[in-house]
Design a protein that fits this description.
The chain is α+β, with helices and mostly antiparallel strands. Helices cover 38% and strands 10% of the residues. The protein has six helices and three strands; from the N terminus they run βαααααββα. Strands 1-3-2 form a three-stranded antiparallel β-sheet. Helix 4 crosses helix 5.
Length: 172
């Protein structure tokens, strides 16, 4: 996959109030999260993706396909927050449009994906802000290409970086 990392100050806090009726992820690292996720039934998993994406979107040990769906929902939630920093709205809307063009799951299922579809592996608009997007297959175990933008990168210029990353992915 091609990985993009972006840092940006942003207003608003996603998931400040957690839904306690949802299954809560464990402490203990990625292995504990992997076991926890495997113990959930399909209904619990779907509720977490739809109603608690802040709980699992950036959770190490969670399936990458699930993180991508949850983070797409986190971006949607952020864009609907009237107190957000609007300076990155254009780039986030473009990313969501690209994601949505591959269907309701962004071209990713539990065991297959569309390599050209963006996978939103990390989204956090708080503090310095973070956004990581992968292009390529989450399941293919062959070669990977990683694009890391320079220190002057920002979410406002994410479209340019995303284009560079997609070009690098297509050339690999």
């Amino acid at each position: 996959p091609v990985l993009l990392n972006r840092h940006r100050s942003a207003g608003g806090v996603i998931g400040a109030v957690r839904n306690r009726s949802l299954p809560q992820p464990p402490a203990g690292g990625p292995a504990a999260v992997e076991r926890w996720w495997a113990s959930l039934n399909q209904e619990q998993r779907e509720r977490l993706i739809e109603e608690g994406p802040d709980l699992i979107g950036n959770l190490d040990g969670g399936p990458l396909a699930v993180r991508s769906r949850a983070n797409a929902n986190r971006v949607r939630s952020h864009l609907s927050d009237p107190t957000r920093d609007r300076s990155m709205d254009g780039e986030l809307r473009e990313l969501l449009a690209e994601y949505d063009s591959f269907g309701p799951t962004g071209g990713v299922t539990a065991d297959a994906d569309v390599p050209a579809a963006p996978k939103i592996l990390l989204f956090d608009p708080t503090g310095d802000g973070k956004l990581a997007v992968a292009y390529g297959s989450l399941y293919y175990k062959g070669n990977s290409t990683i694009y890391v933008p320079g220190t002057g990168a920002s979410i406002e210029k994410f479209g340019i970086t995303r284009g560079n990353a997609k070009s690098l992915y297509q050339a690999s």
